[in-house]
Amino acid sequence: MPIYKDTYIPTDEELTVPEVNLTTAHLRAAAYHLGKSCDHESKEFMLCRDEEKDPRKCIEEGKVLTSCAMKFFKKVKALCRDEFEQYAHCVDYRDRKSVV
User: What is the pLDDT of residue 1?
Assistant: First the structure.
């Protein structure tokens, strides 16, 4: 996408959101349930991205999706942190073992 003098560039404030700061193993361990929990938000974001063909127009949908993921992981932390950590460790161990 070419950028011209009059091309709108979002500000840092518009782009800044709390990040889901987890390892790949944690994201893989939660993928199925996270996908189910944030299904609507994810579909809205993907639909916007597909229809608009301009990522700048989907910033709000992206923020909503990130917020949903944050809420999901806060619930996991509050309700079953130990079990989830064990499962993520197993996922990580399995991945490492398959590489060797």
Answer: 62
For the record, the structure tokens of 76 come out as: 């996991």
> 71: helix, coil or strand?
helix
d(CA 81, CA 79) in angstroms, rounded, equals 6
Q: Cα dihedral angle (26, 32, 33, 36), rounded to 10 degrees?
A: 140
| Distances from the Cα of 17 to the Cα of 66, 70, 86, 96, angstroms | 8, 11, 28, 31
Predicted pLDDT of residue 92: 87
Please state, in angstroms and rounded to a whole number, the distance separating the CA atoms of residues 84 and 100.
Answer: 25
At 68-94, the pLDDT tens digits run: 999 999 999 999 999 999 999 999 887
Q: Taking the complete model, does pTM exceed 0.90, yes or no?
A: no
Residue 14, amino acid:
E
